[in-house]
Amino acid sequence: MQVTRENIELTRQMERVAQVRYAGGLGAQQDAIRAQVERSTLDSELVGMESEYRQVSAFINAALARPGNAPLVAPEALRPLPARLDAGTLNERLLAKNPQLAIETARLGGAEKSRDLAYRNRFPDFAVGVQPMQVGSSIDAWTVMLELNVPLQQGTRRSQEREAERMLDAAAARKEALGHRLSGEMSAALANLEAARMTEEISHNRLLPQAELTFKSALAGYETGKVDFATLLDAQRQIRNARLALLRAQAIQQIRLAEIERLLGEDL
Length: 268
Fold this sequence. Notes:
The chain has 268 residues and is mostly helical.
């Protein structure tokens, strides 16, 4: 929204120059009209952005369990990015901290306990009990109980053991597959983060300064009649595209950073 407002101001400046040239008989009325059309287009885009901003604000409030129209503090600056992210260290933290992997680890532990319990059914089960027999206010005798369960249905027991083993294998395979998938997502997020970082550097240090110089040169040339309005309009659009590319690269970096933290289950 801020970038669009800045571009609208540029079109106003272009419109004023075109009107001055037309009033002095140095330019065509069409130039001023084209500048107005360009500004009207940007005004329409700004209205759409403001509507989207309200929708996103309502979504954020809903995620925070707040009323949809509750005010949000306007962001003043982007969150600083870590200077360097080591893929090996992040992968180790991923395997240790990821909530989904923690769930699969718990399921794997449960499957191991079920298998151990199935193996324990191979052996007889003893139960010993002692109970006093009270007559009046005194204990008259004691009873001793001995219970012995002998596993005789070996086919059923072996089937239960095989089932427990397969359940354990399945739980281990799910955990391994999830670990590989999450590691792949981490690698992709890091690669996209680095690509966005490089794009930001190019846009900030090269594209945007070049576009601003081109616009200034085209504006001066149009004022003196050395270039036509189409060249000036194209220079203005180059500035707009360069500013949006810079902003887009910065936003992508923030999104990828959030993805990495979601995979880790904690802040960096």
